[in-house]
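Quick one:
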Amino acid sequence: MPSKPAPIKKSPAKKAVEKTPEPAPEPQPAPPAETPAEAAPAAGGEAAPEAPAEENCTAEATTPASAPTVEDNTATAADAPTDAAPAEADAVEVPPKAPTPPPPAAPTSAPLDVSVDDVNDCSLTIQWTTPATVGESGLNGYAVEYCKDGATEWIVANEELTPANRFCIRNLTAGDVLRVRVVAVNSGGRSEPGVLPEPVPIREIVDRPKIRLPRALRSRYIKKVGEQINLVIPFIGKPKPVVTWLKDGQPLDTKRVNIRSTDRDSILFIRGGQREDSGVYEIMVKVDSFEDKARFTLQIVELPGAPASMKLVDTWGFNAALEWTPPKDDGNSDITGYTVQKADQKTMEWFTVLEHYHRLSVTISDLVMGNSYFFRVFAENQVGRGEMSAVTKETATIQKTGIVYKPPGYQEHDFSEAPKFTTPLIDRAATVGYTTKLLCSVRGSPKPKIEWLKNQMIIGNDPKFRQISTQGICSLEIRKPCSFDGGVYTCRAKNAQGEAAVSCKLEVKQVILPEANKEKGK
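Output:
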């Protein structure tokens, strides 16, 4: 029996084209079914381009599997019923979609403003600013590279990335001309390089030295003995200047003076200044063939000594003339004046006569007659008054002889005067039972004798009356007068020059009660 011809197997792609069912009608339009171009790679095992998740889900729900597996070699595409496609789709498992990978990291932009910060004969320092665009991945650091001018090989200056915006390239050769660039590095790789605009020659840049002497040292600088001296002299110059100090043209004594110099200033330090440290100090700053000098005067001062000598020149009347000579030791400062004092020989207590006196001679006046005086003088300078003084060896004695006192003559005056009443008696009215007084005043020389009369009768020592005469004031006190004590009273004054009298009338009244009071009394 002749064999049957083998059935022709159709490729999955072709079968997918023939068996693609039409989409079922739905309220919303369904996405288009897989095209042959999309189905063919899936059947052949090649990766198909990704579709959006939403489209994939819709396609899986509405479209059958791409191609069923042919189990029966005798079955043909024409014999397979259309309704068998959903059953075949249920039997085939669709592999899961891979997650979308993140976009690759991008490198930063180039570093900005690359410039030279410093250069000398063995190193080069450059600086730059952060790139304008860094990115989300951040910045790992910077790589600094240099290349000799004319060469093509770039040398990495830093083994590890530097996070700073400044880097010093060391161990260079003087005379080379270098080109420098800076690269920013992050997880995305190296950025475009930031390049130094021009090649840099490796050599020391010389700045002329210049000393900036402080204002306090531009005039004479004065300190007291024992005080600490600490002077800072700033200067500029590049490379580091060579500093030299001199005192009065000679090198400094390092046992007395300490010097410490940096590339910006020099410090002169003396722990306790002495007079031998005074002088003209000179500082010289030198860079290559350029140099600058500055001088200042340091003066250490102390209290002056005593004047060299002092003597008493002359004494007359109530005066004494003195002279002295300036002190041999002025304390390394000009003498500004003298203080002169005196002391009585009896007490030897010193009293200041003159202060801040500028001459070398003086006349002391207003001395006390009969006393003997010593004198001494102190020198003064800008520190103060000296502790030592010069004293006169002789005393200045103010003599008593030769002085005769003549009292002035006065013409005697006769003060004799007859009595005269300056205040007369005044008529008075008194009340029965109430004490009363009569008053008057009188003057006269010698002191007049006073008498009181009542109705031309001398009262005498009657206890009812009290007579007082003091400093020319005459008074007569009548104690509890009655109606019989009324009358004319007279005061009479007598002395060798004459007499005088004044009189007054005294009326003593009885108190009269009203009639109503009388009846009530009865």
